[in-house]
Amino acid sequence: MAQLFPPWANRLPIITVLVAALLGIGAVGFVWYYFSPWYTDVGYRPVQPVLYSHLLHADSLGVDCRYCHSNVEISPVANVPPVQTCMNCHKIIKADSERLQPVVQSFVTKTPLKWVRVHKLPDFVYFDHSIHLRAGVGCASCHGKINKMLVVAQAKPLSMSWCLDCHRHPDDHLRPHDQLTNMDWEPSPEQAEFAAQQKRDLNIKPTVDCSGCHR
Q1: Is there a contact between 95 and 104 (Cβ–Cβ < 8 Å)?
Q2: Cα separations (Å) of 85 from 5, 61, 81, 106, 119?
Q3: Can you tell me the distance from the alpha carbon of 205 to that of 212, in angstroms, rounded to the nearest whole number?
Q4: Which candidate, 135, 123, 108, places its Cα nearest to that of 197?
Q5: Structural domain boundaries of the chain?
Q6: Which tens digit of pLDDT belongs to each residue from 104-116?
Q7: What is the C-alpha to C-alpha distance for residues 136 and 138, in angstroms, rounded to an integer?
Q8: How far is residue 59's CA from residue 55's CA, in Å, rounded to a whole number?
Q9: Percent of the chain beyond pLDDT 70?
Q10: How far apart are CA 151 and CA 53, in angstroms?
Q11: 80 vs 72: CA distance, rounded Å
């Protein structure tokens, strides 16, 4: 009786399993990479009602973050400054600038500007700015070199795994309190000793329990 299938057909089950495994690994890798916050969220740069330059204000002019985000050290949220804060300077400086007219009109009509939020955590996540600042975590750890941004963009993924990495290994993110808003600060060779002392002095014990962020 003639043979119905060639000898190589005996290898089809093995080939099928291998191809399926490779496709599965490829699919997981595709989803992991292209649906990761590093790919989907980092770089998010919405159009704002006013072209506000952190590069000009925070870098060239040296305005401290806390002048505009005045409640960040005592509040869970880093407040968006009211237009009154802008007008403290711009009543005199470039008051007639066309770019500033939305700010001027907001001030005159007492109608808040509708800024587009850039850094947004899910509603089921609890995050407190003041706790992190008191521990010595600077602005740049989460927001990147925002003083170099003409338009604010998200620099970090703000994902759960990214937060947990810092909670498990916070040492490189702890800095002296007088350096919190220094975007150019870098850990010194003695950073390990400094961080250990900071954790002892401030009783810093970052939680990795679910209830720490999901309340």
Answers
A1: yes
A2: 81, 16, 6, 12, 21
A3: 11
A4: 135
A5: 14-40, 54-80+115-213
A6: 999 999 999 999 9
A7: 6
A8: 5
A9: 95
A10: 6
A11: 10
